[in-house]
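Researcher: Structure for this, please.
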Amino acid sequence: MRDCTEIDLSQTLLEWYDRHAREMPWRIGPADRAIGVMPDPYRVWLSEVMLQQTTVAAVRKYFLRFTARWPTVEALAAAEDEQVMGEWAGLGYYARARNLLKCARVVASEHNGQFPDRYDALLALPGIGPYTAAAIAAIAFDQPETVLDGNVERVMARLYDIHEPLPGSKPKLKEKATALTPPRRPGDYAQAVMDLGATICTPKSPACGICPLYAPCLARAAGTHTELPRKTPKKPKPTRMGHVYIAQRSDGAMLMERRPDKGLLGGMLGWPGSDWSDAPSETPPFPAPWRELPGEVRHTFTHFHLILRIWAAELPTGTGPNGLIILGKHQFRPGDLPTVMRKAFDLWRGQ
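Model: Predicted structure, token format:
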């Protein structure tokens, strides 16, 4: 049973959200929800997958392009992999895009194009973890699930003055967030607490003076709010090196490879190349008049920085080394490449 303090906090936050909810292309605002308009689960799911590790400002244009091109989960399920990967380029974390397609196809084929409305069933879908399952259940279906993203963690850590560092403090933060999740309007509440963290209870310089939870915030009262949440220090990212080989035939065809399904950029088209390591092997994929281009490509992945040296070769028409994919001049679309491979192409094209 929720005590009076928790009820008051939740109600205060909902009243604030009713006045200050952000407008987003995937969101049904509180006024419309109050008259029975419910969100489209497809749009909620798509936005939540896109928003993982990415800001609302960055996601907005991608979301609008995706939903214009694939307005339903069935349309997305029928899309070609390369088209989806191309639209995803720039959002990073390509495993999310691969799982996006897998999930769309499972929903279309096994659930008649309808997302399940329960947490456990959502969690069983490809690429949907505990956070995303809770977010979809709460926001799309008004189920009383606890949504815990970085914004909510920050609000809970400050509201209750919790000093244990993340990620070890996640269970305690989840417990506090669960206690505040109301049985009525849980979808609006989930969005309210995330909006609070994104717009007022920000990582730096929180606007405590206009926060609806100013009075009960323990960290604000103790003067520790700018220190929270604490985080276990991250190890510095290592830097890896690599070689990329870009070959074009005289008829304009490009010679490419498809990367292994597992691992970084899994299943995506790219340029043949070396391993990415401290001392990569400078071994071309086939004999050709290779020349190294001036400059280098720099890219940062989640766990490491990458520096690529680019090699180019011009080949006669008809060349087709075994194991490579030949894309004709009108088949090759640079926009379908993952960002790091597009950077290599841009350097090659510029020279």
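Researcher: Any notable elements?
Model: The chain has a mean pLDDT of 93. The radius of gyration is 24 Å.
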